[in-house]
Amino acid sequence: MRLAFCGNDNASAYNISAGVLRNVCFVDALNLVPHVFLLFITFPILFIGWGSQSSKVQIHHNTWLHFPGHNLRWILTFTLLFMHVCEIAEGIVSDTQMKSRHLHLFLPAIMGFVAATVSIVYYHNIETSNFPKLLLALFLYWIMAFVTKTIKLVRYCQDGVPFSQLRFCITGIMVILYGLLMAVEINVIRVRKYVFFMNPQKVKPPEDLQDLGVRFLQPFVNLLSKATYWWMNTLIISAHKKPVDLKAIGKLPIAMRALTNYVCLKEAYEEQKVKDPSNSYLSSEEFLRNVYVLAVLLFLALILQRTFLQASYYVTTETGINLRGALLAMIYNKILRLSTSNLSMGEMTLGQINNLVAIETNQLMWFLFLCPNLWAMPVQIIMGVILLYNLLGVSALVGASVIVLLAPIQYFIATKLAEAQKSTLDYSTERLKKTNEILKGIKLLKLYAWEHIFCTSVEETRMKELTSLKTFALHTSLSIFMNAAIPIAAVLATFVTFAYTNDKPLQPAQAFASLSLFHILVTPLFLLSTVVRFAVKAIVSVQKLNEFLLSDEIGDDSWRGGDSFVPYESCKKHIGLHTKAINRRQPLRYQLESYEQPARKQTRPVEIDDVAIKVTNGYFSWGSGLATLSNINIRIPTGQMTMIVGQVGCGKSSLLLAILGEMQTLEGKVHWSKLPGRQMNAEGDFSVNETEPSVEASRSRNRYSVAYAAQKPWLLNATVEENIIFGSPFNKQRYKAVTDACSLQPDIDLLPFGDQTEIGERGINLSGGQRQRICVARALYQNTNIVFLDDPFSALDIHLSDHLMQEGILKFLQEDKRTLVLVTHKLQYLPHADWIIAMKDGMVLREGTLKDIQNKDVELYEHWKTLMNRQDQELEKDMEADQTTLERKTLRRAMYPRESKSQLEDEDEEEEEEEDEDDNMSTVLRLRTKMPWKTCWRYLTSGGFFLLFLMIFSKLLKHSVIVAIDYWLATWTSMDNTNKDRNADEDKSTEKTYHVAVFSILSGAGIVLCLITSLTVEWMGLTAAKNLHHNLLNKIILGPIRFFDMTPLGLILNRFSADTNIIDQHIPPTLESLTRSTLLCLSAIGMISYATPWFLVALVPLGIAFYFIQKYFRVASKDLQELDDSTQLPLLCHFSETAEGLTTIRAFGHEARFKQRMLELTDTNNIAYLFLSAANRWLEVRTDYLGACIVLTAAVTSITEGPHSGFVGLGLLYALTITNYLNWVVRNLADLEVQMGAVKKVHSFLNMESENYEGYLDPSQVPKDWPQEGEIKIENLCVRYENNLKPVLKHVKAYIKPGQKVGICGRTGSGKSSLSLAFFRMVDIFDGRIVIDGIDISKLPLHTLRSRLSIILQDPILFSGSIRFNLDPECKCTDDRLWEALEIAQLKNMVKSLPGGLDAMVTEGGENFSVGQRQLFCLARAFVRKSSILIMDEATASIDMATENILQKVVMTAFADRTVVTIAHRVSHILDASIVLVLSEGFLVECDTASNLLLKEDGLFTTLVKSHK
Which of 78, 556, 976, 1037 has the fewest CB atoms in 10 Å of its CB? Predict the structure, then answer.
């Protein structure tokens, strides 16, 4: 057929005698002009622009500006494009009905489509390069297009073309669109004034885009990029090359930051608290009957629906995240104002606060995500039912009623699920608590051979947890089953009813349209139950949050500038001050010869002006209404040292907290002096060497902020340096002076990264003394006038205490003229005090200088004196700096193995790198895109091969049956169609019965298989979880002690908490969902290919596209998931650490700084979550569009093939389901990849070597009462910690007679503790042997050996449970025996006074007893075990004098007939020993009685004794 613009079948086509504009063809040609004009003008500009600059337009181009009406322009242009497509389609369909080709019917429309596309590309480029003058071309185009289209419309009106004709409608709509676009363009000129005005408007880009840190561009990009997440491409593709980190995702846009949203929420909360003749025209109906048109419309409808769906998801996500940020800020603000009594009296626990942060805010966020469903779902359900009724009549209502009746069951299952989850959580918390205790006390458990008892206890809780998990699994599988079975049941009921109530046979159109509708109906019903559940949870969360926000706050601390100021801003670096602190001419000597004369000069009587703090008539309470402190009248002199002394529990710490405003004031007043510079004038006598800057410094110190070191040390999760400087400016000299004064340098040197090492909850565990010294250092470093130290010496030994007193307090603080309040038990420091406050039972007993008290209250003074004597100067002097050395030793032990381990790892990595250098990049990529199939296989097999086989088999069978059901339906409906000519009624009825029967059987089988598959997956998951946890626990418990020294506790606990939780609850549903969606997609593709084989050709490009989308997405998603998790932890930690250190933060007045930190952490976590959510949208948009392409391809191929209508329906139905499931395949794959990481981590622990518990001797061969005598022979003993490490003991020989008291001493690192561990075979004895009562211990089974010896460790460890359980977990002893042990340990009276006596509860870690009492319990525990050998490993290191004396006495009397080996902490303890072993560098250098050893003048023992005199 020859081509011609106006066609060549009509001679009058080119006739213009009636006027040019009366010729339709000419009008169409006229319509070409604007389009050609636009293309002609814009192409050169675009090419020049793209070539030079547009391609370089970075995301952070400073001119990323939207012109006015930006979004409206995009919407109008898209509508215009759609109208052009309709115009092209209408033209082509009309043209097919002509005798010759009429290009004028569709060519202008095609050109219009191209021009509209170019217009939006052109506009986008102008916008990004901010060159509005070029918009004039578009303005002219819209005017021309508007005019030409209007001419065409007028022509149609004159020709009397009716409105029902499609071409008339299209032209009319396009006139409106061009008019609106013209209006938009005029508006841009009006606002930006870029032409026709003298001064064009200058516009700055949004603040966010001026900040290069903002990389989340969803709010700023154009509409198309917004809808398709095009801007995410760079991030997702770059993730392939290098992991996504926090830098790559940048900062949150201002509108989404926590602070912005907090301000809005706070306001709302506060308010709420208060309240042509020759032409063939086509009607719309005819046009829509065209099958190709329908196929394209279906495609476009899908694209639109999916785009809007994803957009709605994004909006809810963003709102949810904004709300969460605001809530977190609100909770945090409240925490900073919480009254201390709330926390200490247990009304508000740290756990509850953590729950608010981690759970309740997330519940509200999730509710917001699902919220739109509350109104969308009912609409969807009602519409679905109406459409079904239209299709099938009454029988559709039967199916719908099946769905509606079964929906409540879904809700019931959902509530049961929530209950099961809650009980699982309770059990898992209990299990974790027990596991934590085991890990903390693992050394003791191994030494006492109690692992199995505690292991059984954990296993019992685990069994309860598993029972609860079984319920959870059952309900989950029921839920999945209901979801799959309801549509099958509904379809069955509907079609059977239809077959028997209707005379007409079932048509394919009816069958497949209704099938599709049933599938659509189920989702909202299933979701509705979830949404309702979440709504209920959200209401509960709101109540909890409200309760919290209304709880008690501390009083108004207006006397100390509240939280409005940030103290560190006023601190400047004052060099003079710091040099003075170090370069002193005449250090004060430590003088303790006479208590009568205070060591420091007597200051003159203090006038009222010299008082820094004064309390008058104070009555303070911890919130119970009863006064804890009563009748307090004290004053604290400015610039001097005040000591507060008194017995334990007399209210010393409470007094400090009362002054700081942490307690409730019932009566009286705390008065802080308001004269910052005053002390200078009053004090008057500056020392000569004090330079001007230092005076200035003192003045600039913040008067109302207090440096405070609490009794219980509180550390931040930060580096050592950050913990000490605590937000103040860093000054090297001052920092060094402080660390020296607190003797922190040696400890810092041990840490792997020095003072840049992370400490705190998530960092390295430091001992009590080290933590305490860091807290004191923090208080000293701060540039404040007032320093409160609450019992800073409690965890320090005498040497450190003296050093701290001398260097830190007497020099550093006193010479700075700082006011110091010191709570202490160390009475020997009283002579240094300028002012003393003695307390008793919550009242002030005496107040004044030591001289005053000596004169006025002789009795009290004498009492103090005797106490000091009892603390026995000699003994104090004798003491080694051993506790500290011990702490350092522990730290060193913890550090070195880690270092050597990391060195080994580094070496391995280096070797690998060398081998791999050439294809390094590709290897990294390969590893990052590879699925961990090996780990998956391990996981699946740990569930058992039978269950694995059952799962695979039932899954395949189920999907085959579901396909068979649909296939049968297609056959049935097609048969009815083809057999129209059959008249025999009997034939028909038998055929109908046959079809219905087969259909029912298949549906029934499908429903049963749905249940079986969902159950097998869950059961397999449970079995795998059970086996993995069991193996992990046993492996860990039997692991060598070295493993626990090398592996941080948190890391091991993580395997039992987070990783076990993932294996228990997350992997099974992910696995189920992944297999289901994959099989559904595969069966769908199979079905479409069967119906229309040509589809396979189109599948290749689609498959390739899908492969790349999933490949890129998985990598980026994994990184973003990890970022989300890793940014959440610091946030939660910050909340809990703030709640723990509330008093310290408030005392320092650093609330503002901590708030700022919380806002930063919240925003960081939110941006990670936002990007994760955007990546999911990116994927879904792409898979949805792919799905739409599959539908289009399936539709077009089936039209061209023209097979049985039943199979076309079937193919289309399956193509439509693919769109839903494609993105689930990818997301589940990505989730599974992340979750398999947990299995991998658990497996890495399962490959660890265990201790060798078997011995050469059978337990029955060992005498029941062994060791009876307690005779020990050590023969040529060589010991090392691991076979790749150096020996710690070398060729030690010794003989210990039965009943001897042996002392072992030596310098730090000489191998004393290693020897004690050798008795229990906790270390590797690679040469020599230890023989106890004639039996070589290396031949004994470990359990037997360890259960027959007793040991008391340095750290007293108690477990939660009863006192009885702590003394005798094996329940072997009578009560009398236990009471006897308690009496010996002098605890009998104390235990009797407790409610329940022996059954009184011990809290976790024995926190409800003092350290001394805990150590005595350990002594009683050792006595209960009737062993003839007792080993004391520095058992008195961490206890006070009184307890120590008890211990010594008990050992001498109660253990008189037993062999006691004491590893000495203080050399004086072993002076009475029958024999002393002196070790040096792993060799035994001296062995004799103490008296004989002291005779050797140059002996090591003599040196040790002398050095501690």
Answer: 556
